[in-house]
Design a protein that fits this description.
This protein is α/β, with parallel strands linked by helices and 152 residues long. It has one domain: Ubiquitin-like modifier-activating enzyme ATG7 N-terminal domain (Cytidine Deaminase, domain 2, 3-Layer(aba) Sandwich), CATH 3.40.140.70. Helices cover 34% and strands 29% of the residues. It is built from six helices and seven strands, in the order E-H-E-H-E-E-H-H-H-E-E-H-E. It has a three-stranded mixed sheet. The protein has a two-stranded parallel sheet with strand order 1-3. It has a two-stranded antiparallel sheet with strand order 6-7. The radius of gyration is 19 Å and the shape is globular.
Length: 152
């Protein structure tokens, strides 16, 4: 039997519960601050056995500080939430990728990656979220059926 190392592409999936939790965090915790926060994702190893690709998923539990992947493979990530569309568009993505590369190198060099190989499974999530809610109504009748729009 020949031993080969195969590259398996990773596809990402953001569960709607993630966006709901991000909206909650933006309104209650982050408010008007631009934040950088650790996140966790996972892939279900058993589902991936016969698949030609790997699915990295994030959901509402991805914000948990003591994230436990259970039977899943854990991915360590970084959420960067910007407050303006301009900041989001102008974010220096090459600098960000270089930072992550340096961080990976340091984890390998100092041995942390040997102790916890999941540190090598990393991802970045750059988002734009505004914490404003807008109530719209034209008259008293519309007030009863007013719509709420969230710019997240």
């Amino acid at each position: 039997m020949e031993n080969t190392l195969d590259y398996i592409p990773i596809t990402s999936s953001v569960n709607p519960s993630f966006w709901s939790k991000l909206t909650e965090m933006k309104l209650d915790v982050y408010k008007s601050k631009e934040i950088v926060q650790d996140l966790y994702g996972y892939t279900d190893i058993l589902k991936q056995l016969n698949c030609p690709w790997t699915l990295l998923e994030v959901d509402s539990t991805s914000f948990n500080v003591n994230y436990s992947a259970g039977m899943n493979l854990r991915f360590c990530g970084r959420l960067i939430n910007t407050n303006t569309i301009e900041r989001f568009k102008d974010y220096d993505k090459m600098h960000l990728i270089n930072e992550v590369g340096i961080d990976l190198y340091e984890k390998i060099k100092d041995g942390r990656a040997l102790e916890d190989p999941s540190l090598l499974n990393c991802f970045i999530l750059l988002t734009f979220a505004v914490s404003s809610l807008i109530l719209e109504f034209d008259d008293e009748e519309d007030f009863a059926c007013s719509s709420i729009h969230s710019n997240t």
